[in-house]
Each structure stands twice: as structure tokens, then as C-alpha cells.
Specification:
Elements lengths: L4 H8 L3 H9 L7 E2 L5 E2 L2 H15 L4 H9 L5 H34 L6 H8 L6 H11 L3 H12 L2 H23 L7 H17 L5 H13 L1 H4 L12 H22 L1
Antiparallel strand pairs: 1-2
Helix pairs in contact: 5-7, 6-9, 9-10, 10-13, 11-13
GO molecular function, one term: DNA-binding transcription factor activity
InterPro entries: DNA-bd_dom_put_sf, MerR-type_HTH_dom, MerR_fam, TipA-like_antibiotic-bd, TipAS_dom
Protein name: MerR family transcriptional regulator
């Protein structure tokens, strides 16, 4: 018994157009004929369609499905394992995006809203890279300091952010001046600037002990997206991020030594 395109479309839950596309692509063609000469799908065709729909549900592209179905030597398990890995990667990325969206909703619920013009007015060239924000949130999400920092950041008003960015801009100006003047990264001037940055974080976001400050500085040196949060790319110099990291760690040693002497 053969089945028409319309019949197969109805009980397979796909459109006639999709069946025509499979036919044109050489993936599935009706193999029977009615007495009047109309093309009909056989039981074997329907079994093949079931396989096609199974692989499509898993996200396989049509050309890969064709390879699996046509090549008797194809290792179906290898194809499924590769698809399994890809799907898990996609799930991980989607979960990250869900967390970022939830975090954004929390910020919006605080009532602090800035228009695009206000954001540019306050933040200028300093931009938050969404991919970095996602990774940082996943990395530190269970940290009490990170949670406190996010909560305080969300609660800041436009006026608060204007003060924060003004302080940061002045600090940044003096940091680049010290770097351009070849001041040693472990010298007093650079360490004082590192200490000022640590206190800035404590004052506006979360208590920042020296070990935490060191991890932040390590991120600055390792990831340009992180360093762009404190120094816009147009103001950066080659070697400035490692310079700041060295100053931060030197300042930690200085504070530790001072505490030991006290």
C-alpha cells in the first residue's frame, strides 16, 4: 500500500513543502506509483522518514543525515556522540545566557534605569563585554563578595555612577602617567595607585582584601575584556595590564609586611 504526500504530511506532522524539499535533496523520494501514475510513499520510505525525523530532532544537518543513511560503513555511534557533545555545549551556553538574563532582570527590578544616552554620558568608552560578564558571573557566582558587589552595583544611582567613573578616570590618568614615566611597578607610586584602586572597590562595591585584589589584577592581565573595564582600549598601552598586576601584588606584600611589623 502506498501513501500520498498529503497523507504522509498529515500523520508525520511535517509540511508537504518539507517532503518536497527532502525529495529534491535526494534524501527521501516516493518509491511507489499509483495505477494513475501518482508517486506514493512505501512502508520502507516511511521507515526512512522516521529515521530522518529522529536525526533532525537531534539537530543533524541534512547532508550528515544523508551520509548516515546512505553509507553502510558509517559509524552511527560516532555521529551521535559528536552530536551529544555539541548539544551539551549548546545547553551550557544557553544556561549562561539564562543566568545573564536573570541578573539583568534583577538589576532592572532595583528601579535604577539609565537611557542609552545616560549610559554613554556616565560610562563613556568603558563598556561591559557580555561574554566576559557571563564568564565572570559563572566563575564568582558563589562568592559572597561577588554577590555583594552585584547587589551594590545594581543599587547605585546615576549620580553614584558619575562619581565612580570620575574617580576611576582620575585614577586611570595617574596610573598611565606613572607607567609612561617608567615608574617601577613595585615602586611606591605604583603601589599607592594599586592601594587606591583596592579602596575604590571597597568603597563602592565590596570589601576587597589584598588576596581578592590580586585575583582581580590577574584577570586584568590575562583577559583584555576584564582590563577594558578599568582602562578603555583607546587609553591602553602595551604592558600596562601586567604593570598594574605587579603593582597590586607588590602592594599586597607591602601591606602584609606592615601588618607583621605592627
Amino acid at each position: 500500500m502506498g501513501y500520498s504526500v498529503g497523507q504522509v504530511s498529515g500523520f508525520a506532522g511535517i509540511t508537504v513543502r518539507t517532503l518536497h524539499h527532502y525529495d529534491k535533496a535526494g534524501l527521501l523520494s516516493p518509491s511507489d506509483r499509483s495505477p494513475a501514475g501518482y508517486r506514493l510513499y512505501s512502508d520502507a520510505d516511511l521507515a526512512r522518514l522516521q529515521q530522518i525525523l529522529f536525526y533532525r530532532e537531534l539537530g543533524f544537518p541534512l547532508d550528515e543525515i544523508a551520509t548516515i543513511l546512505e553509507d553502510p560503513q558509517a559509524n552511527v555511534l560516532d555521529h551521535l556522540r559528536a552530536r551529544h557533545r555539541l548539544l551539551n555545549d549548546q545547553i551550557t551556553k544557553l544556561r549562561r545566557l539564562v543566568e545573564v538574563a536573570e541578573q539583568a532582570m534583577e538589576v532592572q527590578q532595583t528601579g535604577v534605569e539609565l537611557t542609552p544616552e545616560e549610559r554613554f554620558e556616565v560610562f563613556g568608552e568603558v563598556a561591559f563585554d557580555l561574554s566576559y560578564a557571563t564568564e565572570a558571573h559563572l566563575k564568582w557566582q558563589h562568592s559572597e563578595g561577588h554577590q555583594r558587589s552585584m547587589a551594590r552595583a545594581a543599587a547605585h544611582s546615576k549620580e553614584d555612577w558619575a562619581k565612580i567613573m570620575a574617580e576611576a578616570a582620575e585614577w586611570r590618568r595617574r596610573l598611565t602617567a606613572a607607567f609612561d614615566a617608567d615608574e617601577p611597578a613595585d615602586g611606591e607610586r605604583a603601589m599607592d595607585l594599586a592601594e587606591e584602586h583596592r579602596r575604590h572597590i571597597t568603597r563602592w562595591f565590596t570589601p576587597c582584601p589584598t588576596d581578592m585584589h590580586g585575583r582581580i589584577a590577574d584577570d586584568f592581565a590575562a583577559d583584555p575584556r576584564a582590563f577594558a573595564l578599568v582602562v578603555p582600549p583607546t587609553e591602553q598601552r602595551p604592558g600596562l595590564a601586567p604593570y598594574l598586576r605587579t603593582a597590586v601584588h607588590a602592594n599586597a606584600v607591602r601591606r602584609s609586611d606592615a601588618a607583621g611589623e605592627a
